[in-house]
Every structure is written in structure tokens, then in C-alpha cells.
């Protein structure tokens, strides 16, 4: 098995989460009695380019099929994040009706809709038909395709190169990272800009965010590694922002290397230096992650078992991929420890979580069932969830998260306290 970027042999395990089903493959009631496919979820680090990557993977075409269940528009905080990004880009680069903004992995048009409100022409590219259909209902033209070098070449030949190419939370999802970046270089106009967002590997390691490892995420990225990959395809990262999204993400701004009109910012140089100071260019940095993962699993299981012994009810919030990774690695099955999970997306309600087979209900079930604890599985939006469900204090309900460490807290808690288990 070789590195997907540089071709070096992969020998060093970063994290082994056993075998589990794809994290977004929700189940219908009819599927509960059918065999469920599980795949190995083992990640390796390349000792040459330090790209962290899944080993054997489920085929992308199977993961991002016609019934993909993640719709970006069902998170109010994510919509606000997208709107702020568009406002910032309009102010910084001044796109007009003569510009073209293209987004790879455009999902349901949640972001491009804001450019369209400015009167800027847009084009979405997404391989999932159901999300593309919702984008079309918003008036966002969307190609139901994977973004590849071949697609970029075809679009460029038709005069559809982008003034701005947006690649938010997709670089980690592509099985052939070299082909994807090669496509970027073809898709962006000579004076154009590409922006990318992805969870920062530095935060994943430091905050033990192992639940962001799942089959859809083929790669786990640092600025050091992405800078190297981009340089190989004539692209230069000229600016970077650190974002709170997804537990700590990077937003990169890149251009063609030949375009010297956009100088490399001090922020890029500072973050590269900080990653080096942390040791991200050394193998040792990646070799002590697994024991910390195992501690999280043990603490969560002890907490859930104690609630069971005390006769307390635990519900989950968010049928998110990260939650499914966590529950699968903990070996949680059925409703014995977590009675149900709620989610705002109607595309998930009435279905069951992969692996654990916990039912997914409408958020109203929290008020109806009055659980003692609500375990927030997408911990990255905990503030949003706590605000939505502040009413659980009416019956003494509390919130819990498992990552980076087990904590319980109430809506009025100023500082979350670590649970003694």
C-alpha cells in the first residue's frame, strides 16, 4: 500500500478504529434485518510527505451515491458561516456579473446561493443527485459529477474557467488527491483564486478528534502537506485563516505560482513555522495517538453504563458522521445505552444510525421523552445545540460531550465540568 500523494510505502499506523460501516450510510427499518457491510477504518501516516490517510477504502462512488444524507442547509450556524465567507470574498476580490464562481462539492447550494444574491454567476459541482436537486430548486446550476482533472479540462475548454473556485471540506474526501489538485490548476483562471477549507490535522491530534476519521475522509491534512501537494501542480498558497468550524479548520487561499500579484502573507509563514515547531514534519508526532483514542472510548462507555445503572435516560443529538464513528468504535448497539438520536434533517428522521441501529427522531422527541442527558455527537456545534435545547433544564436535563474529553454541563454552566466517572 502506497501514499496517495508521493507513492511512498505506508508502514506507520496513525489510528486503528476497527471495522465499521460507512458513517453516512443511514438505514431504513427494512434494512435492519439485512447484513450490514463493515470496512476497515485504519489510518496511516506517510513518513515522507506526512499525509495521514485511510488505508483500504470504500469506493467513493458507493459513498457519495444518490441517497447521500448530509444536507448543509440544515445547520443554521453553517449557513451563517457560508454567508460571512461570501461577504468577505466579495469585499476582498470584488466579483461581478462578469465573474464566474465555481464550487466543487457544492452540496445543496447552501453557499452559492449567497453569491447568486450578489448577481455573480455560479456553477455547482457535486456527485450526489439528491443534494444537486435541492440546489437546482434554489436556482443553482449544478453538475452531478465528481470534480476531476478530466472534468476541469472539459469545462476549461468550454470557457468555464473560474475566477473563484471554492473547495470547502472536499479535499479530504477525494481518493485521488493528486488528480483533484491537478484539476484545480486547470479550473482556475490565470489570475483567479481558489479557497479551500478542511479540518486542521493539528487540532485533530491535539484535541483527540478521532471521530472525524471515517471512510469519506480519505486524507487528514496539515498546511505543510497541502503546501507541498499544491506546489507540485504549480499552485501557491498565499494566505491562510484559522477557523473554529469542525473543531478547528484552515481556510487556504491559493493562486497559480506564476501569478505574483498576490504575495504570500505572514500568516502562511507563521503557521508553517508553528506546525514545524509542533513536530508535524516528524514521524514521532503521529505515533502516540491511539492510546488517547482508547481513553475516550473507555470514559464514554463508563459514563453510559453508570447512567444505565442509575436508571437515567440518555438521548443523542445529531445523526452526524462523527457520531457514528464514535458509537461504532465504542461498540454501542441498539437502544440499551442511548435510547434515540434526534436530528433536524428530515432526510435522516425515521432512519437508523449505521452500525448502532439507534433510531433517528425529530428534535421534538427531546421534549416528549425528557432524557436526563443529551449527548451531543457533533460536538463542533455544541453551542448551537445547547441554545436550541436550553429547555431541558425544565426537568433537570444536562448535556454531555465525549471529545476531547468527557464533560457534562447545563445551559447555564459558565465552565463545563469534567464528569467524575
TrEMBL record:
Keywords: Methyltransferase, Transferase. InterPro entries: Methyltransf_Zn-bd_dom_put, Methyltransf_Zn-bd_dom_put_sf, MeTrfase_14, SAM-dependent_MTases_sf. Pfam families: Methyltransf_13, Methyltransf_14, Methyltransf_23. GO terms for molecular function: methyltransferase activity. Transmembrane segments: none annotated. One of its GO terms (biological process) is methylation. PANTHER family: BLL5978 PROTEIN, TRANS-ACONITATE 2-METHYLTRANSFERASE-RELATED. This is Class I SAM-dependent methyltransferase. It comes from Hymenobacter busanensis. The lineage of its organism: Bacteria, Pseudomonadati, Bacteroidota, Cytophagia, Cytophagales.
Amino acid at each position: 500500500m502506497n501514499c496517495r500523494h508521493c507513492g511512498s510505502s505506508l508502514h506507520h499506523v496513525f489510528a486503528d478504529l476497527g471495522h465499521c460501516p460507512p458513517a453516512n450510510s443511514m438505514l431504513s427499518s427494512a434494512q435492519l434485518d439485512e447484513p450490514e457491510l463493515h470496512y476497515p477504518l485504519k489510518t496511516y501516516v506517510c513518513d515522507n510527505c506526512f499525509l495521514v490517510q485511510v488505508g483500504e477504502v470504500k469506493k467513493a462512488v458507493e459513498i457519495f451515491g444518490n441517497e447521500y444524507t448530509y444536507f448543509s442547509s440544515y445547520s443554521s450556524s453553517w449557513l451563517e458561516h457560508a454567508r460571512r465567507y461570501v461577504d468577505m470574498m466579495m469585499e476582498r476580490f470584488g466579483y461581478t456579473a462578469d465573474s464566474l464562481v465555481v464550487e466543487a462539492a457544492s452540496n445543496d447550494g447552501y453557499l452559492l446561493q449567497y453569491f447568486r444574491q450578489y448577481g455573480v454567476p455560479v456553477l455547482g459541482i457535486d456527485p450526489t443527485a439528491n443534494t444537486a436537486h435541492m440546489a437546482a430548486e434554489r436556482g443553482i446550476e449544478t453538475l452531478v459529477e465528481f470534480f476531476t482533472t478530466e472534468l476541469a479540462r472539459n469545462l476549461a475548454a468550454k470557457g468555464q474557467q473560474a475566477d473563484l473556485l471554492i473547495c470547502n471540506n472536499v479535499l479530504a474526501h477525494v481518493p485521488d488527491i493528486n488528480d483533484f489538485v491537478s484539476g484545480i490548476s486547470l479550473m482556475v483562471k490565470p489570475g483567479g483564486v481558489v479557497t479551500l477549507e478542511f479540518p486542521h490535522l493539528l487540532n485533530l491530534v491535539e484535541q483527540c478528534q478521532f471521530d472525524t476519521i471515517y471512510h469519506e475522509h480519505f486524507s487528514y491534512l496539515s498546511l505543510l502537506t497541502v503546501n507541498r501537494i499544491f506546489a507540485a501542480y504549480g499552485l501557491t498558497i498565499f494566505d491562510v485563516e484559522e477557523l473554529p468550524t469542525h473543531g478547528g479548520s484552515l481556510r487556504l487561499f491559493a493562486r497559480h505560482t506564476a501569478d505574483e500579484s498576490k504575495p504570500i502573507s505572514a500568516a502562511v509563514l507563521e503557521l508553517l513555522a508553528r506546525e514545524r515547531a509542533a513536530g508535524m514534519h516528524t514521524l514521532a508526532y503521529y505515533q502516540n495517538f491511539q492510546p488517547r483514542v482508547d481513553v475516550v472510548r473507555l470514559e464514554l462507555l463508563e459514563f453510559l453504563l453508570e447512567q444505565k445503572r442509575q436508571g437515567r435516560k440518555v438521548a443523542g443529538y445529531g445523526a452526524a458522521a462523527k457520531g457514528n464513528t464514535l458509537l461504532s468504535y465504542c461498540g454501542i448497539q441498539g437502544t440499551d445505552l442511548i435510547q434515540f438520536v434526534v436530528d433536524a434533517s428530515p432526510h435522516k428522521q425515521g432512519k437508523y444510525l449505521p452500525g448502532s441501529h439507534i433510531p433517528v427522531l425529530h428534535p421534538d422527541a427531546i421534549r416528549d421523552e425528557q432524557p436526563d442527558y443529551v449527548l451531543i455527537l457533533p460536538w463542533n456545534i455544541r453551542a448551537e445545540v445547547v441554545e436550541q435545547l436550553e429547555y431541558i433544564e425544565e426537568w433537570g436535563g444536562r448535556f454531555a460531550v465525549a471529545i476531547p474529553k468527557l464533560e457534562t454541563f447545563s445551559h447555564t454552566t459558565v465552565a463545563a465540568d469534567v464528569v467524575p466517572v
